[in-house]
């Protein structure tokens, strides 16, 4: 099979694409219940198009470029069920960039379409990775930055295209804020393996800052800049201690890529058949993997979709198992090990891990304008969401210390902007509003267990 995949035949590529679309079609047909984060981001796009302001009205720690994409999805009426088609398109683009970079700069011997196919295959470890996430969208720009870095490393002197490296890294972090740490990786790769000078380093940093200047200017114009700082001061840019359960979750999910990377690293240490430019690329790749491990301590959560930045690093080092083994049977065995690991990873997800899926809603309501003052976002599957309280962990701060005059004004405006017909109050929050803000509270009466109905 490996010889067939390495042949560069169009038949092998077409068969792989057909198999990929079969998996996607299966997901679309069977994915009647989305992941919790999928629904949250989908509702975010809807709220933005209703006139609610990100960070000021909607307390959500999402990067602005990703929020804009979800807003466009809702604007063009693209249903949540079809977002995997957009995700596979993005993954395919990333795979093409990955393949062309390896071919153009001779990082590996002739492997046909194997780099593209292995890269895309790594996303089969979980259905979450076939969903449209901020981390996946931002990864495209990280790979573009890697392509530019390999271009700079092929000679002894860097040129002014280092601006593009900084620009790509800046855009990546505007989709997923944790990617801002890859600025350190870019600096290391340029300083250690190119003849970059001080002026070009400044140009690189200007490229990184440029998209931020545009975003900050827009947020400042819309009076949202201060709100952004408040949201992220409370929810981001702090180091987390990884729990053993999360660490096990990460290990099991990315076991195929980790196994391939370790095997490739072992083979790489015992050979001298690597070209000079390929050595530079691999050394930069080690820095990518090390930074990815550090990044684990900065993520908002440890779901699989937030960890896709490991995949390019694992794939690049893992390719060595397909050409550095001398015996054909060993090379063939490696491809079957890879396929088996991917299959096992899928089975683990299907049979055991359902924690990321939304649970069925329990409220006796359907197609009603509903506001939930709690984390039970699954109730919006069968109802229309009112209000901007998507991320309850951040939004609940608005309902604390309601004696604050500014909070009273804010809550009054948010309730009047999109008034719900029903309010579900599992956190016993609305009862405090009825006392402190009577012009809202008197419009609703409790008729069930923590359920309030509008009466005027």
Automatic annotation (TrEMBL):
Transmembrane annotation, as ranges: 82-102, 114-145, 165-190, 202-221, 247-269, 281-299, 305-325
Leader sequence residues: none
Keywords: Membrane, Transmembrane, Transmembrane helix
Record bears the keyword Transmembrane helix: yes
Protein name according to UniProt: Glycosyltransferase RgtA/B/C/D-like domain-containing protein
Organism: Sandaracinomonas limnophila
Species classification: Bacteria, Pseudomonadati, Bacteroidota, Cytophagia, Cytophagales
